[in-house]
Design the sequence.
């Protein structure tokens, strides 16, 4: 853990301890005033102010991020993406201006020292008829997190739809997209840009996601929430993969399925 992380945690703990102490002192003072009204209003107001100050410090100590490297001054939040670095479970990821990520330490026990300088391609997605804007927003957010920078939309809801931002939370600004009348021209456009297009769909000839070849840069095709990818779209793709499921439910929400597939494609690119 870096010195910045330690100091941040120590500062937060100190503020919480001081706030708790002042809250306790204020409550005791008010109690004493109630028992002995001869102390007068001045002492009562003083103890009341101490109690309020204690509550503020206690709240500040609880809100202060724990484990954040104050030396970097940057951390991942719900509302944004760190442009320079993230401290996450003692791992420091440095994002350069090119497509390179350097990792200084392990993440949650994973051995990642061989990722010291990994070239990360910008991924692509084909959305074939995905219509629910909340699903599209969730897909966009995952895509932005995993450096997918372009969407080929085949009759799918666009990220600039009013309701998409409910789940995208502003991350659509990190992506571009092109729109097509159906999934087939969207797949053809991705292939023309040099991408191997793999549909995520359960068909008789589909391979498990972890077994399908991904030797080149991949664009994943994600289908409609109920109908999936159309037969024409599947025929235009280079391959079809399914996500193995071991439980009693045979389907996943389309945004969740997209997240799993995007991560697997990204993992493959790391390991080349």
Sequence:
């Amino acid at each position: 853990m870096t010195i910045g992380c330690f100091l941040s945690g120590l500062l937060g703990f100190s503020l919480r301890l001081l706030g708790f102490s002042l809250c306790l002192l204020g409550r005791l003072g008010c109690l004493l005033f109630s028992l002995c009204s001869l102390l007068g209003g001045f002492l009562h107001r003083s103890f009341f102010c101490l109690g309020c100050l204690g509550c503020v410090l206690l709240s500040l100590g609880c809100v202060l991020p724990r484990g954040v490297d104050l030396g970097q001054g940057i951390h991942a939040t719900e509302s944004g993406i760190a442009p320079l670095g993230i401290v996450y479970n003692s791992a420091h990821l440095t994002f350069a201006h090119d497509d390179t990520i350097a990792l200084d330490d392990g993440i949650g026990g994973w051995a990642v020292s061989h990722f010291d300088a990994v070239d990360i391609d910008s991924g692509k997605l084909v959305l074939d008829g995905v219509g629910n804007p909340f699903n599209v927003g969730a897909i966009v957010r995952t895509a932005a997190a995993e450096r997918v920078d372009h969407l080929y939309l085949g009759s799918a809801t666009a990220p600039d739809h009013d309701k998409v931002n409910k789940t995208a939370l502003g991350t659509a600004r990190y992506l571009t997209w092109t729109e097509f009348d159906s999934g087939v021209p969207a797949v053809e456009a991705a292939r023309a840009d040099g991408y191997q297009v793999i549909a995520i769909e359960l068909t008789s000839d589909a391979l498990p996601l972890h077994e399908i070849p991904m030797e080149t840069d991949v664009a994943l095709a994600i289908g409609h929430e109920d109908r999936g990818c159309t037969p024409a779209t599947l025929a235009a793709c280079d391959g079809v993969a399914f996500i193995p499921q071991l439980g009693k439910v045979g389907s996943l929400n389309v945004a969740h399925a997209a997240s799993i597939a995007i991560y697997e494609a990204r993992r493959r690119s790391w390991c080349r």
